[in-house]
Amino acid sequence: MAVTCLIRYEIDPLQRDAFATYAESWARIIPRCGGHLLGYFLPHEGNTHVCIALILFDSLAAYEQYRRTLKADADGQRNFAFAREHRFILREERTFLEPVVSTLQFDAGRLMPTHATPGTYTAGDHEE
Question: Does residue 125 contact residue 116 with C-beta atoms inside 8 Å?
């Protein structure tokens, strides 16, 4: 069963740009390690300190394998170190969600085709 990991971050709003750099790095790392990154989202209206990331996995077992791969990834280790050094993440929590398939506006199993480059995917890019 597919799952979506929702990561809710509370950040130092004065370090928004540092968090954006951190998020941009994950756009290259997460797909390589086995996750399907839907995206990172910065605050726009309302609060100034809550950011969200959405990462899709085929199953919880796939998530566990992703975590093992991520911990061994040199770029992932550097990005974690960047966050620790700059201390822009004040709090982080994960929630695992199961989609209500009939409400999806896309085919979760085909969210990002293998030929797409992270950050360049558009809804019409999926292969038929």
Answer: yes
Whether the pLDDT of residue 104 is over 90: the answer is no
The per-residue pLDDT for range 32-74, each reduced to its tens digit, is: 999 999 999 999 999 999 999 999 999 999 999 999 999 999 9
Residue of 67, 16, 20 whose CA lies nearest to 39: 20
H or E element in which residue 53 lies: strand 50-57
Contact 36, 55 (CB under 8 A): yes
Domain ranges of the chain: 3-97
Spatial separation of the C-alpha atoms in residues 23 and 118, rounded to whole Å = 12
Q: Which of 98, 101, 99, 124 is nearest to 113 (CA)?
A: 124
**What pLDDT sits at residue 99?**
84
Q: Say which CATH architecture domain 3-97 belongs to.
A: 2-Layer Sandwich (3.30)
